[in-house]
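Sulfur carrier protein FdhD, pasting as requested.
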Amino acid sequence: MGRDGALKGWPVTGWRHDRLETREDVVIVEEPLEIQVALPREGTVEIFPVAVTMRTPGHDEDLALGFLYTEALIPEPAVIARGLSLERPSPNEVRVILPMDVWIDRERLTRHFYMTSSCGICGKAAIEAIFAHGYPPLPEEEPVIPIGLLYDLPRRLREAQALFRRTGGLHAAAIFDAEGRLLWLREDVGRHNAVDKAIGAALREGRLPLSRSLLLVSGRAGFEIAQKALRAGIPILAALGAPSSLTLELAQAAGMTVVGFLREGGANIYTAPWRIRQSPSSEPTV
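Structure tokens follow.
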């Protein structure tokens, strides 16, 4: 049973019609990751374990940064340029060392957020807390996406999911620009982890807020995913599955466009439908 990063070989006994066969399958690796925050202060360093999440190894630094930013523990994207650094005390730990001049709420740090790979952060305060922590204002006039381009994004997502093609066991989050170019794609056993990884990658490159971008997720559009997209300044959230009622309430209050049940040839627009327009006759719509 060999292992290669995010993948692991596993012997499988399978039935194919009426024939029994034994072979080695490839499964996705799931392991805990502890996210820590270190605060240097006058010759000492305070270390706070902040979160433990079950994740697929790979892009762990992006995951840590994306999580801390979307949870408003990193106060603003500019912190990256002011000397933030990363350490790996062990393969299953990421330590984010904040610059000395960054103020952070120690009480929030000492409140551990325990996550599972399927449900995201549980027991979070609802919409009022999202607005209290702040988020970049969403643009009121753009982007406006032609429906034909939107229909094509699931295909582009599938083609970029290298690990899913091998295992069938991963969620994906992809950030596209307004012209449909894929900017970042991340895969993980946890759908919220995939989103944190994609947003963390954008944060490390100094690209936030993502005000001319679209986030596409391979599953449903739950509240925690909408919250993360809003924190990153993403005006359009699209999902292959359904949104939840709390997602739609948050999106409606913030002016975010939510698209559900997206497929080639169909989509439901739940909020801010003005950001999706009819395709010109020269564009394919299927």
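Note for the archive: The mean pLDDT is 88.
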